[in-house]
Amino acid sequence: MESEWRMATLPGGFEVASRPALGTTAQVVLHGRPVGPAALRAMDRLLDDLDLEASRFRQDSELARVNASSSPELEVSPGFAALLEPALEWARRTHGLLDPTVGRAVVNAGYTGDFAGLERDQSGPAPAKSPAPGWWQVELSGTHLRRPPGVVLDLGSTSKAQVADLAAAELLALTGGAVLVSLGGDIATAGAVPPGGWVVRVGDDHQGRMGDEGQTVVLTARALATSSRAVRQWRRGGEPMHHLIDPRRGLPADGPWRTVSVAAASCLEANALATAALAGGEAGRALLEGSGAAARLVTTDGRAVHLGGWTPAGEELPLRVVPGAAA
After folding, report:
1. Angstrom distance (rounded) from CA 313 to CA 327
2. How far, rounded to the nearest angstrom, does the alpha carbon of residue 235 sit from its chain's CA centroid?
3. Torsion, CA 106, CA 275, CA 155, CA 219, rounded to 10
4. pLDDT in tens, 111-164
């Protein structure tokens, strides 16, 4: 897969490699080091393993086999267990605002395939309110999984963030340089901070340009994640849909936030808090305030709200973001 990577050199000694992956874009940035073949092979392995373990869009993925099984108990691979365990832990820590049992609700909303090929105006019925079964119904002991048949798991959010953390650590060990890994805008860093810091544009879309609406930050936390309902949108039965589900209703979140960004010590933590906050509305804001995390929340009418150490001054100017305590 190395031929799929696009390489670029940026001013200041940064080398960038990027390729499509997981229905989004994977990006590796190194400072003062080339992105060599070993680093790209490591990224390919991590991305391929994640796709085979946790993709909702592959019939041969382990997640698809687990969801299709009618058995209330089954053995899963160590890799799958390693993805599910933190998803359950963060469901507990977010009081269920992040819940891996929303899989059926995501399908009912019409998100049934890779977004690039998803029909934007679907004729099927709009989904009815139906709360997620609940993460507490899923028990994992080592590699032994127990859950009621019919519970459909979705690990897309937390698993991608986990792999960003793993990739940053592995590439640091391989290269010894300052590393930034972005998977669809979920960012993990490792190693020494480059001169001037990691300058990141925060907005609704991770593929947005520096001139788009948003904020430019100099990241001092190890990780940054953004959840947004403003980008992946479609209609079903005449109703607007997006992929971020409020587990309490089993429907796309309709609270006051269109985008939530969180800076934290790990991409997994940042992503879990950002997703839970967006899904939870005002309860999500209370969760963030209780965690002490640094966060930027954007209302549906475009107003930015800053929490924790996320400085509100100069939405169009570089600033320093200080991570808060873990949730």
Report:
1. 25
2. 22
3. 140
4. 888 887 888 998 888 889 999 999 999 999 999 999 998 999 999 889 999 999
